Amino acid sequence: MAKLLLSLWNGERHPVDLADVLSGMDGTGKRLALQAIAAYAERGEDEELRRIGKALFAEFSGYVELCEAAAAARWSVKQRWELERLQAAEAEERDQERMRRARIEKEVLSLTDERLDQLRAVATSQDARVDEFPLWWWDLSDEAQQEALRRARA
């Protein structure tokens, strides 16, 4: 019963497995436990529960220490999971960027010297118009167009 009341008082620091708590109780204990749960559901943490929780906290310091160690371990595991999730997301972003760059490189490398010369003639002109770009130019992705222009101007 003390585990249950500590959990109702401060469930974050003293979580409890309800099935485990109830399985160790007789019929009277189970009825009292369910009454405590119903009162908590109805009123939340009231003054009586705070008083009981503080008394139990002082009385069962070993259990409290165990709960706090478990809470610290849970926090540590959650932090590790979050770090792993962030690292996986970063790795995915890097993979996507590598694939994007490889696609652009493939598009640009597919340009023949003749096409690069055509592009160079337009790209180096001070008064080049959009309609002067060759038709194949418009089939390139925006990124490939930028890279092709950079190479043509180099």
Share of helix among residues? Answer: over 70%
- N-C termini distance: 79 Å
Uncertain stretches: none
Strand content: under 5%
Query: What is the H/E string?
Result: HHHHHHH
- Structural class of the secondary elements? mainly alpha
Over all CA atoms, what is the radius of gyration? 34 Å
- Average pLDDT figure: 87
Give the number of DSSP strands: 0
Shape verdict: rod-shaped
Largest beta-sheet details: none
Explain what the structure shows.
This protein is mainly α. It has seven helices and no strands. The longest helix is centred in the middle third of the chain and has 49 residues. The protein is rod-shaped, with a radius of gyration of 34 Å. It starts with a helix and ends with a helix. The model has no long low-confidence stretch (mean pLDDT 87).
In terms of topology, how is this protein built?
Blueprint: H1 2-9, H2 18-23, H3 27-43, H4 47-59, H5 61-109, H6 113-123, H7 142-153
Helix pairs in contact: 1-4, 5-7, 6-7
